[in-house]
Amino acid sequence: MTGPTAGDGDQREAARALRRVRSPVAGRIRLACVLSALGALAGLAPFAGLAELADALLATPPDRDRVTLVAVLIVLGLLLRGAFMSAALTITHVADVRLQAILRRRMIAHLGRVPLGWFARNSSGRLRKTAMGDVDALHQLVAHQAVELTAAVVTPLGALTYLLILDWRLALLAVATLPLYAGAYAWMERGSNEALGKMDESSARLGAAVVEFVSGIAVVKAFGQARKAHAAYRQAAAEYTDFFADWVRPMTRVEALAGLVVSAPVVGLVTIAGGAWFVDRGWVTPGEALAGVLLACVIPVAIEPVGFGVLNRRAAAAAAVRIQRLLDVAPLPVPVSPRRPAGHRVDYDDVRFAYDGHDVLHGVSFACEPGAVTALVGPSGSGKSTLATLLPRFHDVTAGAIRVGGVDVRHIDPAELYRHIGFVLQDVQLLNDSIRGNVALGRPEATDAEIHEACRAAQIHDRIMALPRGYDSVAGQDALLSGGEAQRVGIARALLADTPVLVLDEATAFADPESEAAIQDALSRLAGGRTVLVIAHRLSTITGADRIVVLDRGRVVETGTHTELLDARGHYARMWAAYEEVPA
Asked: How does this chain sit within the bilayer (predicted)?
């Protein structure tokens, strides 16, 4: 006996994910299935009625009352089938809309609670695919499959039950070709779980490549790299196409033959020939033989949705797994008894941090004093940005502590923490909102005068006023800002929020030379009374910092002012010498 395989584990995970994802509307789906079953049974009444009608008409003399009654029952069966199926599909479509709204709201609410650093490790393409494409992928399963699959199961079972009541030989005749279909289907199913898993992964890569390419098309075209950027999409599309073709090509002929043996014409010919023989032997009446032919032709038509349903269920299960994995991302821990900071001094106390099992920071300790600018410098990969993002809890430290106002940031409620800490990163994201709304993101109640003052300080007010609708211009529509301009909007946003602690990750990295000095002067004036932590990639931007912390391989190797560090002739002095040698 062999143990459970990885495929078994994947199937169990998919089944659990489907149950959990569909749970908000599971009751409605069950009700729809009951109605679908009743509709399927009502739909068999016309076929059985036609057989009864044939016997009544062949009687000598014809039984008019029986003919009238059977005709009424046939019409009633058709009406009931339409009513039940319509009600069932209405319920499942309403359930589908409700489920999509629930899942998207749940994902948005959950993503608002996960650590901000999680987003840096997960591409926007995959997130969009999960939030949009994967939720849409559940439509067929919720709105259609439950109802159609129930009818596909109840219809042949009801038909066979009725034929068994008439004559067991008619029931056997109706399913005579099914073993051939079942054998062909079993052959096609070999290794399908693994193949579908690979196809789903390939589809996810293709979707992410499309989103990422479209999102960055303006930038790559501007720099003449459209062909290079398009290569990732072409490769993903080629991999998906090649895999899909290699998988389905051997199955197409078998599938065609399998479909043929259970097609209505073939089943009809078999049952007509067999029924004629049964009538000749006196086993059944002509009406019963007609019932056998009609109901036998219904069975393969009803079975067809089962095969499509299996594929739809697998696709929906894969989507449900991704949705559930997103919902299972551990949220940022919230303190049970939160504390409020007493002041806004920032202390890094023996901070250690590991990412994917690799140590990034090794016992880093330093303080950022209120009213002072502390700059972090060091070579790429030294841990500068990591230290900065640990302060607003993009991640939590592995060991040690970061304190604001004497309180560990992990003991401060996240909403309270973000009222104390503002940050401007290199990659500023503007919402699809007005410039006014983007600047006032942290203070929606801010007045126009306050917004304008923050924008003037960030040297972006004049550029905004030059836009078609000024502060009412929408980012990405009639407000097409450069990287440096978007960064200055981000600076204005942080300044308007008026947080006592400000984190700047090379906030002037994309500023043009003319406005960089003005921005630096504005930041210096507004730093009064604030605790400012600057991550510097260009040393010229932090020569006036009150304290410079030099990092190397996740450790503090030097601290001091620009002059003190140059006099020490250590790491910083060598970095400065190398910086000055680089032509402007």
From this structure: Multi-pass membrane protein
DSSP per-residue letters across 345-401: -EEEEEEEEEETTEEEEEEEEEEE-TT-EEEEE-STTSSHHHHHHHTTTSS--SEEE
Dist. CA 24–CA 467, nearest whole Å: 46
CATH classification at residue 487 = 3.40.50.300
**Contact in structure between 416 and 340 (CB atoms under 8 Å):** yes
Burial zone of 472 (CB within 10 Å; 0-12 exposed, 13-18 middle, 19+ buried) = middle
Q: Number of folded domains in the chain? A: 2
Residue found under tokens 């006592």 = 500
Structural domain containing residue 459: 346-581
Q: Return d(Cα 390, Cα 117) in angstroms, integer.
A: 9
Strand partners, 559: 549
Between β-strands 373-377 and 531-535, what pairing exists: parallel, antiparallel or unpaired?
Answer: parallel
Q: And the tokens for 155?
A: 């219809």
DSSP 504: E
pTM of the model: 0.63
| 368 within 8 A of 548, measured Cβ to Cβ | no
Q: In terms of domains, do 305 and 353 share one?
A: no
Task: Specify if 524 maps to a domain.
Answer: yes
Measured CA to CA in angstroms, residue 434 lies from 25, 166, 437, 439, 496 at distances of: 37, 73, 5, 9, 16
Give the tens place of pLDDT for each residue, 223-274: 444 455 566 666 767 776 766 666 666 556 556 556 666 666 777 788 888 8
**CATH at residue 32:** 1.20.1560.10
Token pair belonging to 244: 């899909």
Residue 64 CB coordination number (10 Å): 10
The span from the CA of 461 to the CA of 459, in Å, is 6
> Between the CA atoms of 14, 18, 20 and 21, what dihedral angle is there, to the nearest 10 degrees?
120
